[in-house]
Amino acid sequence: MKKIDGHAHIVDTIAGFNGKGRLNALGNGYAIWDDGDLIKLIEDGYGDKDFSAEALLRYMDANDVEKAVILQGHLNGYQNYYTYLAMKRYPDRFTGAFSVDPYAENAMAIVRRHVEELGFRAIKFEISQGGGIHGYRGQKTPFRLDTDPHVSLILSYLLDYPGFVVTVDYGNFDQISHQPDAIANLARLYPSLDFVVCHLSFPHADTPHRLRAELSMWQEYPNIYTDLSAIQDIDSPDSFPFPKSEANVRIAKEVLGAKRLIWGTDSPWSATFNSYEDLATWLEKLDVFSPEELADVLYNNAERVYFKESAVTANRQAQDPVTEHLNLQ
């Protein structure tokens, strides 16, 4: 069955940053945060201090994954330009989102460059307290996506690009960044934009009522989707074929329907906890979806949301003078 990995990462140079400080590459796929937390970021054989576009393609080709959506995150550091180069080099395999700190002085100049010059048609906000903006900016001054003027300035600009995708990682329910209700407000305020919430709103099988209630906030807004990436890690321990994740996905199908769910892996980090093969095949081992629904979750939904013709055309037509000057391929 055809697949699109709807949530993946590539890393040219590890540059992670969040409330733990800076992520420092050590080699052999390991990295250490400034607070001393050591992590295995990249599976053996897939990169020493980087996880290249070609390494992701190795995962994909070995598991019959046709395309991937490359997202940004504070774990790896924003890989915006490397993502642009990967989309240009492999236009039939990759699309992607860029990220910007909305509080940066030149935030709008960064947004305009990525949209108007580089052809991006998706933006990722990782605002989580655990791994994103709230971890280093929001402790004393928490902000909401649906009322913050810096975010509103960006979203208002994006209204000139109907169908633009806004992807959000807002962290676990016990973090001040957790904002499922803000997503509902944004979908109402910006009906011409598509919103994708990462990681199924951070589900836990032992609190099914919370997950059902949060997803129900989005029922009446057809421009809200959610991806299923890394939910095995969030609700761990859970071993293949991931019964806890199955229980959470059943609730998601019940509340939102199969056409609003997007499969993804959150590689490379998640592939160090569970193999990419297991992450690529677990949904096919379950009886949650009919064959038609499974095709939607594994391929059609990501194709419809992220691989819009306007997005593909915009990136293929993008002309970046830096790329041309340095002869980057």
TrEMBL record:
Residues 4-307 form the Amidohydrolase-related domain. InterPro entries: ACMSD, Amidohydro-rel, Metal_Hydrolase. It holds the Pfam family Amidohydro_2. Keywords: Hydrolase, Lyase. GO terms for molecular function: carboxy-lyase activity; hydrolase activity. PANTHER family: 2-AMINO-3-CARBOXYLMUCONATE-6-SEMIALDEHYDE DECARBOXYLASE (PTHR21240), CATALYTIC_ HYDROLASE (PTHR21240:SF19). This is Amidohydrolase. It comes from Streptococcus danieliae.
